Amino acid sequence: MKNVCISENNCQKLSCGLCCTKIKNFGVTLGNTVILEDINLHIHCGELTAIIGPNGAGKSTLIKALLGELPHTGTLEYVQAQKGAFQTPVMGYVPQNLNLDSTSPTSVLDLFLSCNSRFPAWLIRRKNEVEKVKEKLAAVKAQHLIDRRLGALSGGELQRVLLALALDPVPDMLLLDEPVSGIDQNGMELFYQTVSSLRRDYDLTIILVSHDLDMVRRYADRVVLLNRTILKVGSPDEVLQSQAFYDTFSLRWQKQNNTRGDKG
Amino acid sequence: MDFWYKLLEILPFEWAKAGQMVFMKNALLAVILLTPIFALLGTMVVNNSMSFFSDALGHGAFTGVAIGGLLGFIRPLSSAVIFSVVFAFLIALIKHKSKMAGDTVIGVFSSTAVALGIFLATLGGKNFAKLNTYLVGDILSITPKEISLLAVVLIFVVMFWYLVFNRLLIVSVNTSLAGSRGIHTFWYEVIFSCVLAVIVTVSMSWIGLLVLNSFLVLPAASARNIARNQRQYHLLTVAFSVLAGIAGLILSYYIETATGSTIVIILAIIFFITYGLRKKFA
User: Fold this and answer.
1) Which CATH number belongs to the domain containing residue A85 in this structure?
2) Residue A144 domain boundaries
């Protein structure tokens, strides 16, 4: 991997620091239930921000609100050196899972063409467009998967394919919603390495909902501990060693460590 | 049409000879036009697990016919089309707005529509029998004028499929993903539902409400067993659909059965054959 992050300081120097995303007073209420409130975040591009929190903390809801899919209060402001302030950044989104059933005859190529081609994927496949898809897939080490059906991919493969898709076209902001389970350790490692190098190659704002605290500790620049509202923001070490983290996760963290130990 | 009749004379069938059995020749052309329409739309019906929905559309169309009859239209088709489009829109809207399970919403609408349809059709002690043709369908009754209507519908559906397929596919893959790429998922669902409603309503009197849904679901479900990408999926769905349509029509002529159900039985046989083969293509 080129550009592997050596230390946190190093990363911050590499990023431009001129663009940022401001999330101001975000809140989501569905029916009578307050799911999120008082979310204030300032995210620099070139930074990998991981969102962690217990089940039902509103992590996926935050992503969907950022995408504009759920009604929310507050504002999302995106500032870039060249363009100034604007409110509708180009979003790249890697969903947690797909709605398709696993027998669906939709290949990886179909998915890419239907997203980016002007021509219908069932009828026309332009050679130059297919080549472009291959390049995009190669960037996430998935070029061999081009003719596979989406339902036949493993969790890690699917995630990398969706990541390549989210980068085409290159977004201002990349939102990743990691699946709770079903990804092998190797796939996970490869995924995090790819995301990690992306943030500098493309200078992206990356927000990642993660369930793997070990990966978060190793790859994230900043960690947001979320449970209906932001409990703690800081470097991975700051957050993972905080009292707030201990209070929300103590049982869970222990359990996870125990099961790891059993497997090992 | 004359060209079509001439063309058929090369076939070795009794009914294909010049001047013979015009209704059969009309029906054959109608089947060739009608089956690809259902095949194309059916691919997405199965993708989106909408088979219950398309079934409900048929019920809505039936109510539309009954309302049309009540209002005194000589041809209740136009009122039926309007009603079933409104019906499709309402289902999509309520499914979108409420947290109720999709199939519950559809079930509520579907059963209400059927009840309302029968209620209206029998109001004032009228005989239900004249609506039987909508239940069973009769493709042999199709007129040359209606065939040209079908040709227009086919051209429209192919164009529609050319223009909106990509977006519909992304919506079916993941609605949030579609949203992140600037696609208004709700409106695409509505457009597809309404086109489906129109097609179902228009063809109801030829295919019959009872088997209509199979025309949408079975070819796509069969193709799904062995297709590996969208191109194969479309090709196989259309091929199965047209093949079963032609074979079913000709068979129904010789063994004297209802055409619609004969076609469906052939489609069902194709489904089980491909189901048996599915592991070889997985």
Assistant:
1) 3.40.50.300
2) 99-169
- The identity of residue B60, as a single letter, is G
pLDDT for B176-192, tens place per residue? 899 989 899 999 999 99
The answer to whether B176 contacts A91, with C-beta atoms less than 8 Å apart, is no
Closest CA to B63 of B80, B51, B40: B80
Structure tokens at A119: 């021509």
Residue A60 shares a structural domain with residue A175? yes
Q: Which phi and psi (to 5°) does residue A223 adopt?
A: -125, 135
Q: What is the pTM of this model?
A: 0.87
Count other C-beta atoms under 10 Å from residue B62's C-beta.
Answer: 26
Q: Which residue of A has its CA nearest to B278?
A: A103
* Å between A260 CA and nearest CA of chain B: 33
Interface of A with B in 79-98 (CB under 8 A): 91-93, 95, 97-98
CATH number of B2-281: 1.10.3470.10
Pair of tokens at residue A102: 């696993």
User: Which chain A residues are Cβ-neighbours of B47 within 8 angstroms?
Assistant: 100, 104, 106
ipTM above 0.90 for this complex? no
